[in-house]
Amino acid sequence: MSTQLHAIVAGAGVAGLTVALALARYGHRVTVLERADVIEEVGAGLQLSPNATSVYRDLGLLERLLRFALAPETLRVRRARDAAEVMNLQYGPLAELRWGAPHLVIHRADLQRVLLEAAAGNPAITVKTSTSVLGFAASSDGIQVGGRMGPANVRFEGDILIGADGLNSAVRERLGLGEGDRPIYSGRTAWRAVLPAAQAPREALTLETNLWLGPKAHLVHYPLRGGDVVNIVAIVEDSWLGDGGDFWQQQGDIRFIRGRYASWHRQARTLIDAVPEWRRWPLFDRVPTQRWSVDRVVLMGDAAHPLLPFLAQGACMAVEDTATLAKAIATHGKNVNAAIAQYEKIRLPRAAEMRIASRRQGAIYHMSGPLAFARDLVMSRMNRDRLMARLDWIYKYRA
Ligand SMILES: Cc1cc2nc3c(=O)[nH]c(=O)nc-3n(C[C@H](O)[C@H](O)[C@H](O)COP(=O)(O)OP(=O)(O)OC[C@H]3O[C@@H](n4cnc5c(N)ncnc54)[C@H](O)[C@@H]3O)c2cc1C
Known about the structure:
- Helix content is 35%, strand content 29%.
- With 399 residues, it is α/β, with parallel strands linked by helices.
- It is globular and about 65 Å long.
């Protein structure tokens, strides 16, 4: 009996495209349904840590990603007020030695392009754009997925439906995970920009990840695309929930963000002031649930466990999900529900732990007064080994 499955995936983001490639590698057929008319190469920078790059290495995609990615040599943490260095973690080649795979920064559009090209070159994968998943019905021998393709109703038949349709997942909504199951606003917004190197201050071009800590705000920046651009994320406490739609399209008012960072050290201010246009994102996560599935339907990525981005793990966790599900399906074959149960058993606790750690990290970053003073003192006294060891549970993890 053939154990080849037909998987239907809702969403062609990092999770959807990566799971398609992971399943195709085991010989399964995959149909990816994406609501957008074109899979646009949009976005800003992403940190891809070794727990995720190791998965791409297994998929044979690491070499291609390395063509677009950079590997920062240092993580430099500074105090907002006076640029005093709180911590300087020079991991360089040690990162790969310790964590077994490279720690990269990459433009999301480049990652998306590599994934899309690999999917397009794989005869087992079909990607259908302009197709929204709206509902599903499972039976003992398969799953029917209903949706809309432009004005037409469409239906697909497969063995499993994977909901990789992001924060406001339509698949999740139909799973019935309970009354209170909805995204939770964190009271923070992220302002994102990608600035051409020619317009950026020279200090922002060195091959390092920079983190600035101030009261109720922080700032992250690093070079991308061979140093041609600088990726900037400014995170502030705020009450803006967004006005629906695609966050990549939501512009932020430059006067607001410049004002918010006006009291920061000149070096940080110069970078903020150099940005002509920002995208603004309200940040959400969700309370962990007991399950991400019903019969033959399972969630992954932000649809399953959206995270606040303070440990830079949202996409990395989505990539981990894909490897775990592909391996579980390889173990259980046509017994899709057994594979889903194995996947949930492994992924639910890790996602719950990551959520707590991400929230905690945000609180630490935004401390003020004596708490910030104590934080800086503790950070400045930690040696490299201890600092790296604190990241082992994230970066050494192998899905
Ligand atoms: C400021 C910020 C910084 C971040 N930095 C990092 C970082 O450094 N490292 C990191 O690992 N993560 C980071 N993240 C998190 C990361 O961006 C997300 O976790 C990741 O992109 C989620 O991928 P996904 O594929 O699950 O969802 P998405 O990227 O949201 O993709 C979902 C896809 O599903 C489609 N879709 C939606 N509904 C339907 C439907 N009904 N039918 C069909 N298709 C549908 C959408 O159009 C979309 O293409 C950051 C996030 C933010 C906000």
